[in-house]
Amino acid sequence: MKKLKLGFLTVLGNEENHSEKMGGVFEAAANNNAGIIRFAARVHYEDYNMFNLELHNLYNVIDAQKLDGLMFLGWMPGIVGKFFDDFLKRFSYMPVVSLGANYDNVPNVYADPEKSLTQLMSHLIDVHGYKKIVFVPPCYPDIRMDIYSRIMREHGFFEEDLLISYDDLKDIPLQDRMKRVLSILFDERKVEADAIFVMFDTDAQTLFQELHSRGIRVPADIAVVSNEDSEFANYSLPPLTVVTFPWRDVGYYGCKKIIQIIRNEKTEHTTGLSGKLIVRNSCGCLSNSVTLSKIEDRQEIAASAGAADYKDMLRFSDQIRKAFPSSQLDIEKLLYSLIEDFEGLTTTRFFEEFEKQLQDTINRSPYRGSIDEVEDIIYFLRNLVIPYIAPRSKDVVLFDDILLKSTVILKEKFVSIIGYDNIEMNAINQELHFLSQGLSGTFSTKKLASVLEDNLHKLRIPSCCVYLSREKSFSEFSLLLNYTDNARIASDDAKAGTGCLSDEFVEKHPRLLCQLLHIEDEYLGFVVFEPLLFDARIYERLSLHISSSLKSAILMEKLSEEISLRKEKELQLMHNANYDSLTDLYNRRFFIKTIHYILDRAVRYPEKKLNFYLVFIDFDDFKQVNDNFGHDVGDLLIIEISKKFKNLIRRYSYHIPEEIIDDGENGMSEAVFRLGGDEFTAIVAGISMDEMKVLASELINTVKSPYLIEGHEIRISCSLGISIYPDHSDDADQLIKYADMAMYQAKMTKDMCCFYENSGCS
Description:
Layout lengths: L3 E8 L4 H16 L2 E8 L11 H12 L4 E5 L10 H7 L5 E5 L7 E4 L1 H15 L5 E3 L8 H11 L22 H12 L6 E4 L2 H13 L9 E4 L4 H5 L5 E3 L3 H16 L7 E4 L3 E3 L9 E2 L7 H7 L11 H8 L7 H14 L4 H16 L3 H22 L3 H48 L4 H11 L7 E7 L7 E8 L2 E2 L7 E2 L5 H6 L2 E9 L2 E9 L5 H30 L4 H9 L9 H17 L7 E9 L1 H8 L1 H19 L22 E5 L2 E7 L3 H15 L3 E3 L2 E3 L2 E9 L6 H18 L3 E3 L7
Parallel strand pairs: 1-2, 1-3, 2-17, 3-4, 4-5, 5-10, 6-7, 7-8, 8-9, 24-25
Antiparallel strand pairs: 9-11, 11-12, 13-14, 13-18, 14-15, 14-16, 17-18, 19-21, 19-24, 20-21, 22-23
C-alpha cells in the first residue's frame, strides 16, 4: 500500500505541549503507514481577527506538496473566526480534520472539557470549600465559560462580578491580560476572591507575577488553578494545580481519524477526549499528587471478594482499556505477570514486565506526559486489585511491595527524562550557539549551505532541505540545500520549481517539519527538517538563525552584483566590509583581520612584550526584548548600549593603526566590534588584571541601567567572557574560542563575567 502523505498545520510554540502533540501525530502515522509533514507558523493569540501573511504564504507551500489530507490546530488564529470559511475553501480538494476544536462542518478530535472542568471545580468547592471562584476566559469564545457558570449556579455560588467576560479583555495584549483582570476584580469591582481559574499557561505565569506585585500570596491569600499543564505548571512556586489537555491523544487520534477518512473506513465525525485533574500546591493542597479514586469500605470488599481465582483479574483489562484508550501498554501481559506473582508469591514477574514496557513507552514518546499516564494506570490498577485481594492479607502485603517497586522506577524514569532533556538541550543549545556564529559570518548562500552541511549532524538532524523563493508571490522555489541521510546531495540550485517534496523522499523520511524562512515580512523561502529529537523549539531557533544568515547572504550577493555594475559603490561596500551597519562599530570580518594583525606584529616585535585581553560580550535574554517590543526597539537598544561600550572601553582599548583600515576613510581607533545580533567583542590592552576586573564590572553595571526607548522602559543584563594573550594562547582562533567558552559559562548564570583560565567569576 502506498504511504499516505499527510500535513499537520500548527503554531510555532516554545512549550513541551506542542512537542507532545507532534509526537502523538507521528506515532499514529507510523502505525498506519503514513508520512507526516508538520507545517508551523508564528501566530499571536490576541490577533484572531488579523490577516496573517506568514500563514497565507505557508498555504502556498502546503498546496505544493500534493497532500492526501491535512490536519490543523483547531483554535489556530488566522484560521478560526472570520477566516475559517476561506481556509476550508482553500483546501477543499482534500480531507481536513480539526485537532483540538469541535466544529459541525469539519471532522474533529477535541478535548471535551465537561468532565475535567467538573473535576477541577468540584475539587475547589468540595475539598477546599471555595465559593468565590473567578473565571478568566480564553481569547476566543468556547463552552468552558458555560460549564463554569452552570457548576457555580448549581452550588448557588454564581456571581456576575466573579466572571471576566471576553469583552473585558478585548484588544488587551496577551502579556497585559492578568494586569487588567486584577484591576477589574480588585480595583473596580472590589471583589474578595477565593480562587482564580485561568485558561492558559501564559496567563498563569503573568498572574503569579501580578499577584506578587500586589503583595498577594498564592495559595495563602488566593488559590490559582489553570486549564493547561506545562513545564511552568510543574516547576513554578508553588506548583500549579491544573486540568491537563490531552495533547498526545488529540494528535494520535486526529491522525488516525484522517487516515480512516482517506481510506473510506468508518469513523465518527467528532471524538471528544478528556483531560485529568492534577492537584498540586497552588490550590492550597499540601502534596503534589494525581487524584485517585477512593477504595470502597473494606467490610463491603471482604463480603464480595470470593475465592482466590487470580485469573479472574484478567477481566480488569477491559476496564483499564476503557479508561486509557490510547495507552500503548500491553495490559494483558501485565495482568498475567501479576497473576504469576500472586500464584508464586514473588514480586519480580510484574516488575520486570512493567519496567520493560515502561522503557518502550519512553522510547516511543519521551515526554513527562507519558510517565504521568503510566502512573495513572498503575494507580487505577491498584484501585481494581485491592478490593479483589483485600480478604487475603498476604496478597495485600505482596501487592504493596510490587506497587512500591513500580512507583520507585516511575519516579526514577521521570527524573531521568528531565535530567536527560536538560543535558541534551544544553548540548544542542551550545551547538546552536556555535552554528549561529558560523552562519553569521557567511556572505553567500553557497557558503551558508556549506556551513549547514558541516553542522547539521551535531544537531541530530539527518536530513534537511532549504528552498529559496524565486518571486514575491511565494509560489516558485529553487533548492539551495539537499542534505539527506547525513550527506549533501548535488542539485541544480538555479532550477525553479514548486518546492514539492517527492513521494520517494517522504516515503524514506516519514516525519518532517516545515516552516518558513523570513525576517519580519520579508519571506525568503522555507526549510524542511527530519527530526531525531522531538523538541520543536530546536528547529524554530535553527530556522531563525538560517533566516537571519540567509537574508545577509542574499543582501551581500546583491551588493556584489552591484559592485560589478557601479564603480562608485566600491568605497561604500569596502566600508560595509569593516563596519556594522547598525552600530557603526567594526564588524566580525574586521575583528578577525585585526586580531591576526595584532598577533602577527607580536611575533615580529617580541621585544614589545604585547599583552591584551579579548572580551566577548553577549546580552542575556535579548530575544525577549524583540518578542515583547519588536525588532525596531531591539535595534535601538543595541545602538544605545554599543555607544556606552565604546565610551567605556575607549581609555583601555588597543589602538588600531590606520594602515589596516582599508576603507579609504579615517576609521575609529577603538578596538570595539559587533559580531552580529547582540554579540560584541573588544580588545583591551595596557592594564592589569585588577583593572580589567573593574572595567568588566563597569560594563556589566552600565548595561543594567534602565533604557527608555520608544516609550518603553527596558532592563537587560549582559554576560562577559575573557581570554588573555599570551597567558591562555598565542593563537587567534584559540583565543577566540576560549573567550567564547568563558562567555558561554557566564551565560549559564547570567549578569556576570568569567575568565577562561579557571572559569572563575568576578
